[in-house]
Amino acid sequence: MNSALFFCIFLSTCINICLADTDNLQDTCPTATTGKQTVFINGFPCKNPNSIIASDFKSSKLSSPGDTDNFLHSSVTFNTAADFPGLNTLGLSIARTDLEVSGFMMPHSHPRASEMFFVSTGVVIAGFIDTQNKLFQKTLQPGEVFVFPQGLLHFCVNNGFNSAVVFSVLNSQNPGMVNIADAMLEPDDDTLNKLVRKIKSVAALRSMHMAFKMRP
């Protein structure tokens, strides 16, 4: 009996070790810029420790707005370990979303990461859909945060009268992006406007309901 119990504990420990993410074996591991890739690993090779500098841990990529002169009036700029060396092995990536008035980010998912969505300026509707097809949606003001769970379909739309800027942190250095909307929706103004109107109407109804509940 004791032997069987010990074996179960040992087996459980081994499974947990196998499933756990690999921890860093050194303080830092900025991405080494290489030419032609000859070795393929789950991540990026590290720079020589003797050549690591403070600039490896700084990026200005998200300081400028993205190009929103497109059909959706929106832009997403990702910053991953591929172009921000200091992120390598940290399990993080960051992004900036720019939304013009009525700008919209089509529903998409990140198969390898959850996303913390922070509104810097503007008013943004953000939401996601779980595996039971239940919608979770909120209107966010500047300084407010929303979370998109890993792998779930999510979206955002500018619900204000000015441009909106959102910054995101994702818990993977390569979160991936599955843009399901491209395969499901025709890229035309009529379809987009219908989808945006539906999202905004749901948000408006919820706001009215909350206001009614708060009345004395």
From TrEMBL:
GO terms for molecular function: manganese ion binding. InterPro entries: Cupin_1, Germin, Germin_Mn-BS, RmlC-like_jellyroll, RmlC_Cupin_sf. It holds the Pfam family Cupin_1. Oxalate binds at residues 110, 115. It is found in: Secreted, Extracellular space, Apoplast. Mn(2+) binds at residues 108, 110, 115, 154. Residues 1-20 form the signal peptide. PROSITE patterns: GERMIN. One of its GO terms (cellular component) is plasmodesma. Gene3D superfamilies: Jelly Rolls. The keyword Disulfide bond applies. Residues 60-193 form the Cupin type-1 domain. The keyword Thylakoid does not apply. Disulfide bonds join 29-46. Keywords: Apoplast, Disulfide bond, Glycoprotein, Manganese, Metal-binding, Secreted, Signal. SMART domains: Cupin_1 (SM00835). GO terms for biological process: plasmodesmata-mediated intercellular transport; regulation of root development. Belongs to the germin family. This is Germin-like protein. It comes from Populus euphratica (Euphrates poplar).
